[in-house]
Design a protein that fits this description.
The chain is an alpha/beta fold and 239 residues long. It has one domain: Ribonuclease Z/Hydroxyacylglutathione hydrolase-like (Metallo-beta-lactamase, Chain A, 4-Layer Sandwich). Helix 5 runs antiparallel to helix 6. The longest helix is centred in the last third of the chain and has 15 residues. The model has no long low-confidence stretch (mean pLDDT 95). The protein binds zinc ion. The site of zinc ion has 4 residues, from loops.
Amino acid sequence: MSLKIETVLCRAGVMDNYSYLLTDKETGITAVIDPSESAPIVRRCKELGLTPQYVFNTHHHFDHTDANLQMKETFGARVVGAAADSRRIPGLDIEVRDGDSFMLGQSRAEIIRADGHTIGHILWYFPDDKALFTGDTLFNLCIGGLFEGTMEQMFSSLEKIKNLPDDTLFYPGHEYTMGGADFALYLNSDSPDLQHYLKKAQDRLRKGLPAGPVTLGEEKKCNPYLLAEHPEQLRKILG
Ligand SMILES: [Zn+2]
């Protein structure tokens, strides 16, 4: 494990976005994932003595990129995002594509394209650190809405996530756990895995912590959208 991960809540109470500060322990090189609001990120960076050299975006939506330009101005960060979003991500400096590797110091990220929520959405996967940043593709107990892609595209993106190792921790773009809980309970009220999942999440949220991260193994057992076995089933669940 060479990566230190700090969660920063942005747009609190409005959209409850999560940005993440990733620091490669060997070199101290830092990136901020999806900076949607400058103030909480700058504050946390000051507290921790961090200067992000990079912004990593998962997709173009404003509540993931709104502070890109401020990160460049304040820290001199360079913005890294999908080539497919080159015209839509503010301040994009470095384009990445599906299957690319990107080094944050000595920590290696793999870029996984995940169309569905948007076309050109990417996941940032750090296999050696067992960490996956899912943006608005996968949330705790739910998934992102289909703004641009088709059900088939979303299903195939979720398949890519399901194929990653179970002990991978995933870090979503919003705190939507309790929003997803009602529907998961409605479908699967007597699942002991789900009961356990929710108890842990509620305990953490009550303490003012993010509900996650949870492992993909846990998520696969409890998230109704990951339990769908084909696109048609996913369509039914989405209603
Ligand atoms: Zn989005």
